Amino acid sequence: MTTVAVIGAGMGGLAVAAALAREGARAGVNVTVYERAPVLGELGAGITMSPNSVRVLDWLGVDVAAIGYMPDVQWTQHWQTGAILMERPRGADFAAKHGGAGYYHVHRADLHAALVAALEAAAPGALRLGADLVDVTETGAMRFADGSTAQADVVVGADGVKSSVRAALFSADGPQFTGQVAWRGLVPVEALPEDMRGLPPGIHIGPQRLFMRYPVRGGALVNYAAFVEMEGWEDEGWTIPSTAEELLGHFAGWDPLVGAIIAATPAHLIFKWALHAREPLERWRRGRVTLLGDAAHAMLPFMGQGAASALEDGAILARCLMAFGADEALDRYEALRRPKANMVQTQSRLLGLQLQGKDPDALGRGPVQNEETLGLFDYDAVTDAI
User: Fold this and answer.
1) Is 69 a catalytic residue?
2) Which one is catalytic: 103, 214, 333, 379?
3) How far apart are CA 139 and CA 141, in angstroms?
4) Residue-wise pLDDT tens digits, 265-310
5) Which of 155, 170, 257, 372 has the fewest CB atoms within 10 Å around its CB?
């Protein structure tokens, strides 16, 4: 029996653990998840699941259609006039084109709960809360803040951008401020003017600014994320309160739809954080320890592929661990995932710069390297050869 310890119960960590819990026993693999939080709870924010991530969720038994919202189209709009610069299909025909895997907007808490349920159904008790890792060795020896220890044949660092696993064995360099600050908010759709309800999801692009919105919870809520190039404030963390007034000051003169959404945000549902990035790692493995998701390749959000990449990591790693011995599995996983994830990490940052260029109208006149032109939606981490 190969024992696997997953550090972190985020999307990627739960994906690899749920897969191993469901099918790993037959392959001689046993998994335990160690999560530092004493109580599970995901942030009240939206997340996009594109076809490549939906394939992984289907494989795990998560019915994303039951918790997600499938739009018909997605707009890219001019920051000031609201003119549609680009329209991309996202509905049933789009899903059929991608083998039945659709494009959904989901509340993070709903998706996280579904993944936890998938793990608990397959392996009750595999998730251990309040386990704050403070040290790990290349041999898989772990030490936690409460003084307890554990040993595993394989340790997976899936503990986010501030990964304790990465800090212990890999790059000691901290994430660097990108010069951008982000806001997120949730707005009850009934709080918007009637003529602004039911619009397709969209991205308003403008000089040094970006505003994206989409419905979640069956269209009952509008989730948005706003990005502003600015200096002088570099705090991290998704739970730093802000105000609608502060954000409106950054989007003065924009399409009235943007202002209406911001103004309608309940005071307790608007937050900001400084965007930080890391350089791609040259390796993800140290001995019997590897990295996954944001711990390995923290991405800026402009392609909406951060969670998708973590889910892909989880699927490939689980498949490798069930098919090969530990050393070969870790080598194959890194060889398959690191080049692709590093490419997406780099391209996402470049796309953010392009979307906030000085001439938004140019977006509709020339080629754009985005998640579709790069072929990311066609990737299948469940069936591709390992």
Assistant:
1) no
2) 214
3) 6
4) 999 999 999 988 778 889 999 999 999 999 999 888 888 899 999 9
5) 372
